[in-house]
Design goal:
This protein is 32% helix and 31% strand. It has four helices and five strands, in the order E-H-E-E-E-H-H-H-E. The mean pLDDT is 90.
Length: 121
């Protein structure tokens, strides 16, 4: 079963076009989360990113623990690359240089989905 989360943050006014460009060339990370023994314990099933003015929202469909998935993503080179490009543009400083910092950012900015419906539901 999947859960949906949204991460919300603001970028410095005037940097919106730079943010759009950064996301336009964003490469997908490894979506599969494994434990120390190599067992699959989670996955990033889907991601969408939205921007309105200087507010950015990243919506994720996650299987497993958001903490496990965020730590995994924080260790992915694709995520480290995009986050290093975004860091100077984000209004509130954060530490995305390690999996723990990424997990903290995910937990601090995440919003729990209250309702999600599909046509097949």
């Amino acid at each position: 079963m999947s859960d949906f989360y949204a991460l919300i943050w603001t970028v410095k006014p005037g940097t919106e076009e730079q943010v759009d460009e950064i996301f336009s060339s964003y490469e997908a990370p490894d979506p599969i989360v494994k434990d120390a023994d190599g067992n699959e314990i989670g996955a990033l099933k889907a991601t969408q990113v939205f921007r309105k003015d200087n507010t950015v929202v990243r919506v994720m469909e996650v299987e497993g623990s958001l903490v496990d998935v965020s730590r995994h993503l924080g260790a992915q080179p694709q995520i480290q690359d995009i986050e290093s490009k975004l860091d100077p543009l984000i209004e509130t400083p954060r530490d995305m240089s390690n999996p723990q910092g990424a997990a903290k950012f995910f937990m601090d900015t995440s919003m729990k989905c209250l309702i999600h419906r599909r046509l097949t539901d």
